[in-house]
Design goal:
Structural class: mainly alpha
Mean pLDDT: 84
CATH class: Mainly Alpha
Helix content: 55-70%
Radius of gyration: 22 Å
Shape: globular
Number of strands: 2
Low-confidence stretches: 4-18, 259-271
Largest sheet: 2 strands, antiparallel
CATH superfamily: CDP-alcohol phosphotransferase transmembrane (TM) domain
Number of domains: 1
CATH topology: Four Helix Bundle (Hemerythrin (Met), subunit A)
Order of helices and strands: HHHHEHHEHH
Strand content: under 5%
């Protein structure tokens, strides 16, 4: 007897649709990953200036992959996971290993503990970012973003190496590197709001003066890239605390969580 509800199509095995991998944004992500890997290799060979440049190049490429994906409508779950893994290498493991090799190794246990605090801070920050991405105010990062944290640590190495390669052995420089590493690592896992620049629309028209300001900014950076870039990221690295204090004084909410969630297991992530 034939079942009237039976459909021959039910006998055909259903295969899940293959999810494509977009080449263009992932090329930027792979290039950023290469920057982090290159930095580690250069540090192993004692070329710390080249290692710093590798991390800063990775930062530029990392800032482009997401924008390219959005502009070309090629976002994908694969790309998001690839970006997180690349960030962990380039802005988490690489800076921690490089600063340890550069200055912290002579401090014994305190040195590698500081490096681990930074590395684990980057991992926790990236995991929290992926968890909270749907509930965080897009205008702000929750804690110092990992590329900026890497810029603080690697910028110090770049400036010091550019001035005098022997500075890495000075006791005050070793303690300064120790402080920068701990500060960057711990600030990544705070709830301090840092401006994200995600509300900047590159498709929108801007006044002519804005183009002039960008040109002047590029000219200033070329005067002495290590010092200028390091100064910019030091300012950004403390700006979040300034925003926090200002909001407190004005009585405004300091949390960057824009929407509450109904997941009790994640309640601690959204405070």
């Amino acid at each position: 007897m034939i079942d009237p509800h039976h459909d021959d199509l039910d006998d055909v095995p259903h295969h899940p649709r293959r999810k494509g991998i977009y080449i263009l944004p992932n090329l930027f992500t792979l290039a950023a990953l290469f920057g982090g890997f290159y930095a580690i290799v250069m540090a192993m060979n004692g070329q710390f200036e080249q290692a710093s440049i590798g991390i800063f190049c990775a930062m530029v490429l990392d800032s482009l992959d997401g924008r390219v994906a959005r502009m070309t409508n090629t976002q994908s779950a694969f790309g998001e996971q690839m970006d997180s893994l690349s960030d962990m290498v380039s802005f988490g493991a690489a800076p921690a290993l490089i600063v340890y090799e550069w200055a912290l190794k002579g401090m014994g246990k305190a040195g590698w503990i500081a490096a681990f605090v930074y590395c684990s801070g980057a991992a926790l920050r990236l995991a929290r970012f992926n968890t909270n991405i749907a509930v965080v105010d897009k205008r702000f990062f929750q804690g110092l973003p990992s590329p900026a944290a890497a810029a603080l640590v690697m910028g110090l190495i770049w400036v010091a190496t550019d001035r005098n390669t022997g500075l890495r052995t000075e006791p005050w420089m070793i303690w300064l590197a120790f402080g920068f590493t701990l500060y960057a690592g711990l600030t990544m896992v705070t709830n301090i709001p840092f401006y994200s620049f995600k509300d900047v629309n590159f498709r929108r028209t801007v006044p002519f003066i804005a183009i002039v300001a960008i040109a002047l900014g590029i000219a200033v950076i070329t005067i002495h890239p290590p010092t200028v870039l390091f100064s910019i990221f030091v300012f950004y690295g403390v700006s979040g605390y300034g925003v926090y204090v200002w909001k407190r004084m004005k009585g405004k909410p300091v949390s960057v969580i824009s929407t509450s969630t109904d997941e009790p297991d994640e309640a601690g992530l959204h405070r």
